[in-house]
User: What shape does this take?
Amino acid sequence: MTNISIVNTSIYKMMAIAFYFLISVSASAQENAGKDPLQELFFPPELVMRYQNEIQLKKEQKELIIGAVEEAQKKFNRLQWELQNEMTAFQKLLGDPIVSEPRAQEQLDKVLDLERQVKKTQITLMVRIKNALTEDQKAQLKTMKGK
Assistant: This one.
């Protein structure tokens, strides 16, 4: 594997871990063990589009959701490239025989800030999708989630 593919794989893993960590946070982890507390609160765009006819998604709603997804994808791409760059710098720094602790912490802050931006973008997308739906559509989608 090349260094770039290793970094890409690492970035994807970190982004997935960061997202699942965000999703898995709950007030009572022991009570909700094994459950994803935010999963029940949001509707992935794939689910909404799969059942768009069944929930009678209006054209305006569909356009709003598509726009939100496209906007998020642009941000994800930009953030992915920035995160890849900062992770490469972080790995290089940590690979030094003697690691400067202040520089390592500063670089880690850059990586974590980008991860925070990824999480914020993910939640923003999910909130926009949820807000675009009517209460009836949300109820229908909740029953369709289990299928």
In short: Residues 3-145 form one domain. Confidence is low (pLDDT under 50) at residues 12-30. The CA atoms of residues 10 and 16 lie 10 Å apart.
